[in-house]
Structures are given as C-alpha cells and as structure tokens.
C-alpha cells in the first residue's frame, strides 16, 4: 500500500514539473513573439542610416535584443541603434549611458554602457525612427479597447 502512495506522489510531482515547464515555455514563446514584433515595428519605422545624432538627455530607451536598442531623446524623437556584437545584459539592465562628444553620438565611434563589469557596446549603425509610423495601428486596424463602468462606491 505504501508503495502505491509513493508512486502516486512521484507521479503527481512529475506532472507538476511538466506543467510548470510547459508554462515557462509558453511564457518564453510569448516574450519572444512580443520582442520580435517590437523589432519588426521599429525596423519598419526606421529610416536610412545616419552618421550621428545630437542629444542633451535620454528621455527613454527600449532594449529590442542584445544587439539592438531604441533610444528616445524626446517623446517624439527616437533612434534605432544597431550594436556591434552582443551587448551583455542589455535586456536586463536598469540603466544605460551613451558616450558622446559635445552632445553628439556617432556610429562606429560611440558606445552604449550598461554598467557594472560589462564591456561597453559599440554603436554600429544609427537610424532615425518615425514615431508616427511606429505608433500607427497595424494594417489600419485600430487597437481594441475594452470599456467598463467604474464601480459605484
């Protein structure tokens, strides 16, 4: 009888592990799909490469992979940076910095710094991002918004 109980517990544990791994795989696929969609959206909204851009502060930034980064210098001004090689921890760091000369960031010269002991990542290419094109609904379809009444107090 005790063997049957142990076998049942082992089977339940194995099923729980399989379910957890399945959920992790599904979450990983969702994350990968979202990242690929963001990369495609930025690539479609990016213009021809430029040699540099001027900025006085970073308004925001969005890692797209370990070798691609969107930099916002203003709410309506963004740049897509392609990095030379892989930039360790780019997708997981809490802060970044850019090297520059007289507030100008140049391709093939300046770097993205992710902090810590990680080596700086050289900027291989800079492309301006058309924010209006990036934010426009895909294929003319408006985003669906679910409306709900505020609960009465």
Automatic annotation (TrEMBL):
Keyword Disulfide bond found: no
Composition skew (Basic and acidic residues), residue ranges: 140-153
Membrane spanning residue stretches: none
Signal peptide positions (record): 1-19
Keywords in alphabetical order: Signal
PROSITE patterns xref list: PROKAR_LIPOPROTEIN
tRNA processing is among the record's keywords: no
Ranges where the record places region Disordered: 134-153
Pfam families (alphabetical): DUF6491 (PF20101)
Protein known as: Lipoprotein
